[in-house]
Fold these 3 entries.
Entry 1:
Amino acid sequence: MAIHPIDYRYGTAEMRGIWDEEHRFRSIVKAEIALAKAEGDVGLIPKEDADNIAAKAMNATLERANQIEAEINHDMMAVVKAVTEVTGESGRWIHYGATSNDILDTATGLQMRDSLEIIEKKLKKLLSILLQKAEENKKLVCAGRTHGQIGVPTTYGLRFAIWAAEVARHIERLNELRPRVAVGQMTGAVGTQASMGKDGHAVMTAMMKYLDLNAVDVSNQLIQRDRHAEYVMFLANMATTLDKIGVEIRMMQRSEIGEMEEAFGKNQVGSSTMPHKRNPIKSEQVCGLARIVRSFVEPALLNNTLWDERDLTNSSCERVVFPEASILADHILTVMIKVLEGVRLRPENIRRNLDLLHGVNMAESVMIELTKRGMERQNAHEIVRVSCMTAIESKTSVAEIFASKPQVSKYLSREEIDALLLPDNYIGTAEWQVDNLVKKLSKLV
């Protein structure tokens, strides 16, 4: 019976496939094959034995390795024995010169490399959607909000563009960290490569070439965990961007705001007791699981503080952190792509909220114009501030209050005041910023 929700509720088949037990086993065997081939290339073991290992090692099974582990209580040696059984006399060279983490960490490098390939493709798809939404809505003026309060106008195009720029930075980060994460080693028990003598560096170089991984420059018994911590922190950073988008969608879907909403299926049920409900459950799922992904940052960092040339405290921790962080991060990325593909904007509610304060939120534009025309900036701020507070408290038109003040009418006519209070006239370079960003980032998708 499945226990963890990853087994039956969360995660895509492609990412689960990279981190499942069978693929992990195959990655370890691939590392052993690459080691044998490299050692055969440099003459450390007979070439014919290396070729035989390469031809037969994949006949080993996870089932047999698990049987052996139950007897000897050592996971890596169980794989070595399982591979030895299927490679005949050549099996005497399996794992020659290696220590467990040479193979295990190299297998992890393969898994992280493949995980990043999946995430990169999906980040590019997400970026494409956001750029399209930015372009489509670059003229859609809406209420900007700070501290949860309506402020001067912005546009939905600019909101989507801001998210797009953030996603593009994640793609940039991914490409920067990939060479540091897609890495393997063959350094021996404490990092000296003594078990391979003068051929150690040549073996490692050839081995990583077979696997299409980078080789460490220096190491001890294991690859230093700052690399893996960077991978987990990247996933957490990406998850937080998805969380941020999800929070905004949820906020804008509130009944009293109603500007944006998730797609809602014809037969979808929102509540077991309130039939009218249309809940943003996908965005909520993204926000909830992002918390789990972020929670792995601390253990990933702590896994780098090991004793001397190594201890085993990282091992059990990583068996949980790496697959869960990868699968859940990929899952919420997939979910958010679907959410944004189907997200619906409600222009009538957007306009209603934009006009909700009857011009009070446009006070900055009046202050700026008064200053332009000769009033001292701080005086303009105070006159406008007092006028706005009066309008709010008395529920009087702020335009009328502005027009009634001699300090204001000296510089602005009533027609000019009315024009300054129109939200559509006060979006600055928002449209240009969207156009510029779309042009800049379209090459990434």
Note: Strands lie at 141-146, 149-155, 183-184, 214-215, 260-261, 344-345.
Entry 2:
Amino acid sequence: MTETELPPSLIPTLPGSFYTDPRIFALEQENIFENMWFCAVRTADLEKPGRFRTVQVGRESVLVTRARDNTVKAYLNICRHRGAKLCTDENGDVKRAFRCPYHAWTYGLDGKLIAAPNLTSMPDVDRATFGLVPVHLREWLGYAWVCLADEPPPFEGDVMAAATERFGDPDAIGRYQVDELAVGRRIRYEVRANWKLIIENYMECYHCATIHPELIEVLPEFAAGYAAQSYVGWHGAEFADEAEGFTVDGSAGVDRIPTLAAEQDRRFYGFTVKPQAFVNLVPDHVIVHRMYPLAADRTVVECDWLFLKDVVEAGHDLSRSVELFHRVNEQDFAACERCQPAMDSRAYRAGGVLVPSEHHIGAFHEWVTRILHG
């Protein structure tokens, strides 16, 4: 079936090869993940100088650390000598410097080359020139966002604008004080599916009544098939009358974020920051997903549940709050994994279709196609 044969209620999706072809995934790595701002790590994870995390951004391993002046820095995780990976662990601590395990070239937390075997016999080697390759970094919502492009796109327009577009109010996201919240729980998911299937799933709620019974008990509006991603300046999904909080059983949650406006109470808001972050906001916590696409059919998703620091430090029971969206995640990722094998089927070679409540996903498909093919 071609696009011109579709009835007005249906519009086409991307072809199946967009979810399986390694060549297309390589283009996405180069043109999307290595050119856009990428939500990398929670800066609170880098609580002291020398603490680091490594993350995969496109085809590059990126090292994010806190320097001695307490600023957060990012570098390509590659020794300038012979190209060995500098830090092989996903996270850890160093005292003063990063030391390559191959030939012991050593770099300060500011990225400068500070030592190497026989370096004093090579006085013509400039230590700054042969330091680690820096990566652009900005901080927002308590996360370090990195960009590998030589000239990054405007951060305000490409990242921060996503929140303004969702709320229609430039001050709304600030009232959640996301940068001041603490991680109450973090869960890492290994999803055997293409990153675009995960985004598409998040962008629609046509599936909510089918696979998210716990969610629609708390947010009955989602049962109709329309979700947060369908609207600009969206009013938010109101909690069910009988729901006391955003928990798996509708019971009361924990202390509410005190700076929220009245219209933000008892409502759920969600938005996507392309290409790989989701932000979900409720009155007493915030849930942030970061995707790390590793292959055409493999994506790691790291999900943080953020609460008031006092709540986390006091050891309040967060299990009912975490369990609701953990179930949603497991249900969504299972659905994506159910779709992934079919992307190679001859039945899906030309793609599928989007119903009216999913039509806005077509704009995401157009965005992907435009970036890959110009």
Note: The helical segments are 22-33, 155-167, 195-203, 208-211, 213-218, 309-313, 319-339, 361-373.
Entry 3:
Amino acid sequence: MADDERTAPQRVERVADTWLPTDHGTFRMTAYRDDRGTDHVALSQGVSDDDGPDADPPLVRIHSECLTGDALGSRRCDCGEQLQASLHLLGRTGRGVVIYVRDHEGRAIGLGEKLRAYALQDRGADTVDANLALGHPADARTYAHCAAMLLDLGVDRVRLLSSNPAKQIALRALGIQVSERIPIVVPHRDENAAYLATKRTRMGHDRTAPPEWEELLAGRVPATGVLAQRYGDLAQGEGPLVVAQLGQSLDGFIATRTGDATFVTGELDREHLHRLRALVDAVVVGGATVACDDPRLTVRAVTGRHPTRVVLDPRGVTPRTASVLTDGAAPTLWVVGPEVEAGAPGDHVDVVRWPTDGPMDPRAVVDLLAARDLRRVLVEGGGRLVSAFVRAEVVHRLYLTTAPVLIGDGVPGLRVEGQDRLTDALRPPARRYQLGEDVVTELELTPRPATCSTLAADVPDAS
């Protein structure tokens, strides 16, 4: 047995059990002390000593301490993002464990030595050669105490969240059954490209990420990955499901006072919008939006199926030359008031006569679409239409993107009913993430259908 194996911690003692509310939900937090006196923690949800042999193995992440990545947000590695992604996935699935392992800094060479290794990397060494040059192994981590913590929690079978096959081998040797190893997929950055390449080429880490978007389009949700985090629960279930999307300025406008809306938000937000379109059955806009912007309402920025286009047009303001009526790229429902003269301009257009004048009731619109088997609906614009659906309490999830621009006056974006007291204001569960210069705030407005998982009650993070 090698010296490092003889001196590695083998046993643990449970020293505390409490609860930790986080941005990703509330976790049971269990502290352990190993036989060298080092404290470690396990963050868990939904695991119990009472789990029977037929219970599905939980997601488990063995996360090595990384002060620079976890606490300081370093971009030299991907550790902090992997930790946040793991906690987010546990919060979404409600079942799993993150073991946070102390004394694993720099693959267990210590913080000061890791920074010395950084200095060597600044001069051209990779992470493996830097450790070796300082007289350390390429990877000095051991996992016996991690296995002991899992067994103490009643977990002996896991779905391992890791791109590192060595962790899987180590846990299996320690009596933990690894039914599946699921790569952690986080965004690569210019600053960590060489670091990640070294992990793949010299340390055997997974070389490629799974085809995440294609899996989502097929209704299968990968356990990890940015897209899975953002859209995974939208990809599953048949509905009913109503989501809404709106992009607006910081001061709450979707266009200038002349109607110019090209473009309030950036290219990444438009890609986000096309992903939403690809995951629903129908996309709904108002006739005034079609008259002003002539949107195509198809999926072009990503791969995916075009949704059915639905134009709510009680006054018949949609131009007969509008793309949705003429291009034939996707089926189109043109819903018009009882007095509007509207012949179908193409075979792809189905004219639906609304029975009454005036604004169309959002709940009745959702029922109309459900009767046509369009049960997963995206309400896209404009501001008055999205606001009406939100006020009618039919929107399950709202994606509100704000761009760092001040318009000053123009076409209003989201507007909800006013309140006399701030304590009565709407404060739905939310999470935020950045798309270029824009910020998406994802709001859970009403209880979701049972087939779709919900956001945690606290605010999950940003990837």
Note: Confidence is low (pLDDT under 50) at residues 1-7, 450-463.
